Amino acid sequence: MKLTKEVKVGLLALVAGVILYIGFNFLKGVDFFSPTKRYFIIYNDVDGLTVSNPVETNGLTVGRVNSISLMTDRGNKILVTIDIDDALAVGDSTVAVLSNSDLLGGKNIVLKLGNNSKVYGNNDTLKGYKDKPFTEVLQERAMPILTNLDSTIHKVNKVFGDELGTSIGVTMHNFELASHDLRGMMSDNRRNISTITSNVAELTTSLKETERSVKPLLVKLSAFADSLNDLQLKQTVARADAAMKGLQDITTKINNGQGTLGLMVNDKRVYDNLDQSIKDLDKLLVDLQKNPKRYVHFSVFGGKDKADKKAAANAAATTPPPTK
User: Fold this and answer.
1) pTM above 0.70?
2) What's the rounded Cα separation, in Å, for the pair 255 and 223?
3) Does position 324 have pLDDT exceeding 50, yes or no?
């Protein structure tokens, strides 16, 4: 079956209309894909509430206003129909409060949930309550402040009215007299003021000249201090360098075997002979302590004992010569 151009245009218009309807309702807050329940609320007046205004609980939007109608058979009360999320449990303790959403007069419905003894189903009627309009709240809070302000101003005017005017007049008169006296004093001392100004100018000029003279001197002193520091540092470095050279010469001589210390460090025979000599000297001192008469002989009358001479000769003959 072949569709004509007219049928195609009609189908296109139908699809466009459906899309437009869905988009328009989506922008108004209608969710076609989430299940909702419908409830009714009766108010005496809605004070600017419109269709698609939000329905909130605890600051979260859970639905929207579906329709608003006038109940002529019930004293022109307003019937408001709302669609809210199916998962939200409302019942006999739930109160639908018509509240102010912003300072510009916007309205919304706030659901106050409580402990329900009975859970309402679809198309049930909720309790309605209306907050005071924003202008009325503002007026209630502003009127006491304005009253107190008016009373305060009245008291201030009563206390300071005449006295304050008189005080201000006297103050202005005194200020005028003081200004006149100051002007006369300035005229009388104009010459002195000119002299003082000239002296200050001359002092400033002399200070500038002194600064010009002192600057080169400060530069020279700074250069002299720098050169003195450099000289002391150079002398210290030269002395340290000379000491290092002397130490290096001594080390070189020791390594080359020059001098007594060099021979002792580099020649083992010198060390062995010195060690043997020390050992022999130690033996000699030990023997001297044990047998002092072998080495020391004296007589009170100047004579010597022949027996002691013979014993000393025998000891000298038996003592071995030192090893070289």
Assistant:
1) no
2) 48
3) no
